[in-house]
Amino acid sequence: MFFEVSIFFIVLILLYLLAIMPKLRKNPNCIRFKGWHYAHRGLHDNRDSAPENSLKAFRLAVEGGYGIELDVQITKDLVPVVFHDYDLNRACGVDIKISDLHYNELVEYRLFKSEEKIPTLKEVLDCVQGKVPLIVELKIPWKPNNTCRAVAKVLEGYKGLYCIESFNPFGLGWYKKHYPKIIRGQLSTDFVKEKIDGSRMQYFILKHLLFNFHTKPDFIAYQHKYKKGLSFTICRKLYKTWPVAWTIKSQKVLDDCKAYYDTFIFEGFRPKL
Question: Which pTM was predicted?
């Protein structure tokens, strides 16, 4: 009986290690993203004239010598726009979803009472012009096809350096199939501790990176507070996966995380370059 139980647990551990195994062959382009700090949604201040995910915030990041992390989702007419939330409540004070608006309707709204509108992905790429690297987060509620196709079409013509990341493993799987040379990252956190509404089973799978066997990410972007999580630690130490921290909000926290992460996404301060 002891032997059978031991075999069962050994097999279970092996299956777990296989499930969380990321891409082992390193993409040589990864090195080009390292050594940068990435301004979360641009170098922004939502109480000022440069709110998050605005063209002005992106211009300030470029001027400051920082890389940029930004969020992309699609409108009802499949236009990729740079905006974080799925609705306009927080940023524009209107109870309506991005996916329910055509772009010509969305363009009428302003971000956080500023003069800045919600930009398209194309406008952001034209603004940055390849001067700094981009981490493009795909905001995908569930099915990835429409979002990934629309975003990939815009990014195809971009000459600058970019990679993609997402919480949604199906979006990463889509990119793995259609654009395998593009660097991709799995975003994760402890969803339950963060009190994010949703399925506990789904969040358990995502927290523990159990879709890595399918998505084979080049990097893991993990919320810095949970840097000692088991699956993240195994990926970092055993599989030597490139670890990216989000979202760092002070130089002290950044310094404290240097033993766990190679790359940092920040906001609310200017890290030392």
Answer: 0.95
